[in-house]
Amino acid sequence: MKAAVLYQPGGPENFVLEERAAPVPYGEWVLIKVKAFGLNRSELMTRKGLSPNVRFPRVLGIECVGEVAQDPTGEYKPGQKVVAFMGGMGRDFDGSYAEYAMLPKSLLYQFESKLSWKELGAVPEMFQTVYGSLNLALKIKPGESLLIRGGTSSVGMLATQLAKKSGLTVIATTRESEKTELLLNNGADQVLIDDGPLTPKLKAIYPAGVNKVLELVGTSTLKDSLQCTAPGGTVCMTGMLAEQWSVADFAPMEYIPATVHLTIYDSGQIRVDQQSFQRFIYDVEAGLIKLTISNCFTLNKIAAAHRFMESNSAGGKIVVLTQAQRPI
Question: Is 31 helix (H, G, I), strand (E, B) or coil?
Answer without folding.
Answer: strand
